[in-house]
Amino acid sequence: MTEYRWLLPSVLLGDGDERRPVRRSTRDWIVDVLMFLAACGLALLTLPDLEGQPAPVVVIEQVVGALSCAAVWLRRRWPVALALVTSVLSVYLTMVGGAAAVALFTVAVHRPFKISGPILLLGFLTLIPFSFLRPDAELGVLGVAIIGVAIGLTVFAWGIVVRARRQLVWSLRQRADIAAEEAKRLERERIAREMHDVLAHRISMLSLHAGALEFRPDAPAEEIARAAGAIRNSAHHALQDLREVIGVLRHSAPPAGDPVPDRPQPTLADLHPLIEECHEAGMEVDLALDAGDAPEGLGRNVYRIVQEALTNARKHASGAPVTVTVAGGPGTGLTTEVRNPLRVRQITRIPGAGAGLIGLTERAQLAGGRLEHGATREGDFLVRAWLPWPVETSREDT
């Protein structure tokens, strides 16, 4: 597909490889027939100018005129060569004028000005000897030259307009292709971010319980049963979330062109169930929520930030107490802080790709906010995010 895309400018502008076979569409055949008929018509209009000419000149005019009209069918493959030959022949012959006009138009359409301009100039130069060799009794030398220049400029301007229109169409197609590729890229990034946010939390919970069982094989049967049940629930929720995300990907857009509905998204109200789930996994998490009824988009971003920060805390500081603070309101924005001690003895270390905090930073920036993370002077690891909360925004607006 990429190879044909690079050939698109050559096809539209006619600047492709002349050795490549010309494949005419139905429209191309219609245009070529019209151009052939136009060349023949212009050649027939010059028949009265042959009166009084010697018989050999008349025969040469008719033969060369017919051949030049037939050569119009080669204008797509060799437009420059056709224009040069017809321009040279038009120094004396009149019936070549139709094919010369078609060739000039073709060069103006299919070649840049650095090529078509000199060919137009060559055509003007041929008018000088033609005006003296084949003068017209009524128009005179100057009249023939003026009419020739006017016809050449008209044909050339027409070709330039057609070329400019084709360039515009090609440019619009390129922009549309680029916009489509950018939309696909953004959608892939959104899906990847959603998959990471949904599954990283569940899998880290599952790994935490499994690690506890691994390092405490002598635990009471009741604790082992509780941990196994938590593992089963985490795996079940992970599969359920994965089905929802894949279901959104498989959802086909309705005929009316409405957007594909997104999977159910969490809000600020879902922070409490998230903390309870962490408590069941054995984490010590303290939540301080001081925010009103935030918009759904803002609440979703805050939830994802807290969820990923808790996942990182489980990975790198398992067993450490975590403090989650969410505060703010319309106009001032919403500030989210997740804090946990740095040096904590870990039972097991959950592997990670290191893309979680990068994804959180990108999410905050896309929402118009900012995110900072790193060690504090108190020996804690802090994730702080600020997201804007416009005054006029409400849940009904979302």
Task: Tag the structure with descriptive keywords.
about 400 residues; alpha+beta; Heat Shock Protein 90; 2 domains; five-stranded mixed β-sheet; disordered N terminus; disordered C terminus; Sig_transdc_His_kin_sub3_dim/P; membrane; phosphoprotein; transmembrane; EC 2.7.13.3
Number of domains: 2
Could you tell me the number of beta strands?
5
> What is the count of DSSP helices, taking H or I runs of 4+ residues?
11
So what's the overall shape?
rod-shaped
Word description of this protein:
α1 packs antiparallel against α7 (140-215), α6 (113-133) packs antiparallel against α7 and α7 (140-215) runs antiparallel to α8. The longest helix has 76 residues, at 140-215. The protein starts with a helix and ends in an 11-residue tail after the last strand. The chain is rod-shaped and about 120 Å long. The chain is built from 11 helices and 5 strands, in the order αααααααααβαββαββ. The relative contact order is 0.06. With 398 residues, it is α+β, with helices and mostly antiparallel strands. The chain has helices at 2-13, 26-45, 55-70, 79-89, 97-110, 113-133, 140-215, 221-250, 271-280, 296-316, 356-366, and strands spanning 285-290, 322-329, 333-341, 370-375, 380-387. The protein has a 5-stranded mixed beta sheet, with helices on one face. It is 61% helix and 9% strand. It has 2 domains: 2-178, no CATH class; 267-398, Histidine kinase-like ATPase, C-terminal domain (Heat Shock Protein 90, 2-Layer Sandwich), CATH 3.30.565.
